[in-house]
C-alpha cells in the first residue's frame, strides 16, 4: 500500500476497538499489530475506542506499545470512563471546580474511574450511608459483592445511576468472561430497574469525539461486536467492519436489524489489510 492518508474505499482513518480485535487478554491477536503499524506508517490516522473503563488511556497506550503497536500519543485512546464522567457532569453538576469537594458519588469501578470522578469535582464514596447523589458503575476485575451491594442501596435511595458501558461479555485468551453489563445486571436485579444512562458504545459519542480529534471525515469503524462497535459506528454515520476474532461471527450478522449490520465483514484485521491492497 502506498504512503497515503487514505486506505481502501477512500477511508481517511481507522476507529478500532481493542478487546477481541487487537488483543484478547494480554496477548495480541495474530497479525493485528502488523496491520496497525502498516496503516500508521502509511499516514492513516488510527484511534482506539474502547468500552473498558478499568484502565486510563495512558495505561492502554502503554499496553499497546508493549505489544509493538506504534502508538505515539495517549490521546489515540478513547475510553468509556471519561465519557461516563461527562454524563455525570450533565446529570449532577459538580457545583465547583475543586477536586473532591462537590456532591458525593459512589464509584463501583476502577481506581482510574474514581480518580476521574474526583478530578471532576465530586466527593468519591464507597458507602451508601453517605446518601450519594449518583452511582457510576464501570468494569473492574476486582469488583466485589460489597461494592455492588452498596451501589444497589444507593440507587434504591434515589441516586442517579450511570453505567460506563453495558457489554455483557469480554473476550479473554481463555474464552468469554462476564463484562460490565453482567455486573450492571446484578445490580439491576437487586434494584428492579435499569441504569438511567450509559456512556459507552453503542452510544455514538466516543466515535464522534475520536473522529473530530484526529481530523477524520470518513473513518472506518472496526470491531468484533454487532451490539456495541457496529451499532455505535452506524449511529455515528460511519461505515463499519466486523472482524471475526472476538464475540460475533458471520452468522450473527445475518440475524440482526439494519442498525447492527456492518458495511464489511472480514475474518481479522489482517484480512482488512489484504482487502486494502486489492484497492491500491
- The CATH class assignment of the largest domain is Alpha Beta
Q: Report the β-strand fraction as a percent range.
A: 15-25%
Which strand order spans the largest sheet, edge to edge or round the barrel? 5-4-1-13-14-15
Measured distance between first and last alpha carbons: 6 Å
Rounded Rg: 19 Å
Mean pLDDT: 90
Estimate nothing, just give the exact number of structural domains.
2
- H/E order of the elements? EEEHEHEHEHEEHEEEHEHEHEHEH
The biggest sheet amounts to: 6 strands, parallel
The helix content is: 25-40%
Spell out the CATH superfamily of the largest domain: HAD superfamily/HAD-like
Which outline best applies?
globular
- The residue ranges in which pLDDT falls below 50 over 5 or more consecutive positions are none
Question: From the helix content, strand content and strand pairing, which structural class follows?
Answer: alpha/beta
Q: Count the helices. How many?
A: 10
Return the CATH architecture of the largest domain.
3-Layer(aba) Sandwich
Number of strands: 15
Quote the CATH topology of the largest domain. Answer: Rossmann fold
Keywords: Hydrolase
Family: Belongs to the HAD-like hydrolase superfamily.
InterPro entries: HAD-like_sf, HAD-SF_hydro_IA, HAD-SF_hydro_IIA, HAD_sf
Protein name: HAD-IIA family hydrolase
Amino acid at each position: 500500500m502506498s504512503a497515503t492518508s487514505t486506505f481502501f474505499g477512500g477511508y481517511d482513518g481507522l476507529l478500532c476497538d481493542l478487546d477481541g480485535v487487537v488483543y484478547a487478554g494480554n496477548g495480541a491477536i495474530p497479525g493485528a499489530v502488523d496491520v496497525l503499524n502498516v496503516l500508521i506508517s502509511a499516514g492513516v490516522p488510527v484511534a482506539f475506542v474502547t468500552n473498558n473503563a478499568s484502565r486510563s488511556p495512558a495505561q492502554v497506550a502503554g499496553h499497546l506499545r508493549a505489544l509493538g503497536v506504534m502508538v505515539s500519543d495517549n490521546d489515540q485512546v478513547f475510553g468509556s470512563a471519561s465519557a461516563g464522567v461527562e454524563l455525570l457532569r450533565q446529570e449532577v453538576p459538580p457545583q465547583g471546580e475543586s477536586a473532591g469537594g462537590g456532591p458525593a458519588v459512589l464509584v463501583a469501578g476502577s481506581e482510574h474511574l474514581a480518580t476521574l470522578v474526583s478530578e471532576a469535582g465530586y466527593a468519591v464514596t464507597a458507602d451508601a450511608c453517605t446518601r450519594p447523589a449518583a452511582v457510576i458503575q464501570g468494569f473492574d476485575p476486582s469488583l466485589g459483592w460489597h461494592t455492588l451491594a452498596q451501589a444497589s442501596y444507593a440507587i434504591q435511595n434515589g441516586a442517579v445511576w450511570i453505567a460506563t458501558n453495558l457489554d455483557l461479555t469480554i473476550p479473554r485468551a481463555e474464552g468469554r468472561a462476564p463484562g460490565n453489563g453482567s455486573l450492571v445486571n446484578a445490580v439491576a436485579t437487586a434494584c428492579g430497574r435499569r441504569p438511567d444512562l450509559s456512556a459507552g458504545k453503542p452510544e455514538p459519542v466516543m466515535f464522534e469525539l475520536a473522529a473530530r480529534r484526529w481530523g477524520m471525515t470518513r473513518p472506518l469503524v472496526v470491531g468484533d461486536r454487532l451490539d456495541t462497535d457496529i451499532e455505535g459506528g452506524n449511529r455515528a454515520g460511519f461505515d463499519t467492519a466486523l472482524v471475526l476474532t472476538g464475540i460475533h461471527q458471520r452468522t450473527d450478522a445475518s440475524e440482526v436489524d439494519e442498525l447492527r449490520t456492518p458495511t464489511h465483514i472480514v475474518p481479522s484485521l489482517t484480512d482488512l489489510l489484504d482487502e486494502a491492497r486489492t484497492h491500491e
